[in-house]
Specification:
The protein is an all-alpha fold. It folds into two domains: 97 residues, RNA polymerase sigma factor, region 2, helix turn helix motif (Rna Polymerase Sigma Factor, Chain: A), CATH 1.10.1740; 88 residues, Orthogonal Bundle (Arc Repressor Mutant, subunit A). The chain contains nine helices and no strands. It is elongated and about 55 Å long. The two termini are 34 Å apart.
């Protein structure tokens, strides 16, 4: 992949350097500054709050243990996202129970349109629920890719880097994930309806 040495914000870089030297308060501050984003990613990957809390805790535990191996070749947030995605894959792979939860207002699938006709609002709500349920049914590797691409809008290259897979593998997984989502949500109604899926 090569070394991009993308600059970290000075204060983050200083905190990382201090934490690597064993300063626990510096690591605690890194957790404070990144916790919201880390938890949000875990929630989107896991689909429910209980698993997301477990994954977030595991991600920071892994980050703390592996901090000395962080060379700064990429953003700290990118490194942490990758750890979180891997922790989610491990956690969900253990057969953790998926529980249906209300979509958080901050999630990209939330309906923020002002005043919809009641019947259209009900249809949109039903579609969101169907998409949410279908996401939960995807295998962790497929869910990771589709969330990072369609929710976080990351390019294939970044997804591949964060998950430690090739770019072509990321594209294959995304294609497979979208196809499975389309089939679960729309059945055999065809590609026409798939556009509605991405508009939700």
């Amino acid at each position: 992949m090569g070394e991009s040495h993308e600059a970290m914000p000075p204060e983050i870089g200083e905190l990382v350097a201090s934490a690597k030297r064993g300063d626990r308060s510096a690591f605690d501050e890194l957790v404070r500054r990144t916790h919201a984003d880390t938890y949000t990613l875990a929630l989107r990957l896991c689909g429910n709050e209980e698993d997301a809390r477990d994954v977030t805790q595991e991600a920071y535990l892994r980050a703390f243990k592996g901090l000395k191996r962080f060379r700064g070749d990429s953003q700290f947030s990118t490194w942490l996202y990758r750890i979180t995605a891997n922790a989610a894959a491990t956690h969900m792979g253990k057969g953790a129970r998926h529980r249906h939860e209300e979509l958080d207002e901050g999630m990209a699938l939330a309906d923020d349109q002002p005043s919809l006709d009641p019947s259209l609002a009900a249809e949109a709500s039903s579609l969101r629920d169907s998409v949410h349920d279908a996401l939960e049914e995807l295998s962790p590797p497929l869910r990771q890719v589709v969330v990072l691409r369609d929710v976080y809008d990351l390019p294939h290259e970044a997804i591949a880097a964060e998950l430690g897979i090739s770019e072509s593998a990321a594209k294959v997984r995304l294609h497979r994930a979208r196809r499975q989502l389309r089939d679960k949500v729309f059945g055999s109604r065809g590609d026409e309806d798939e556009r509605s899926l991405h508009a939700v």
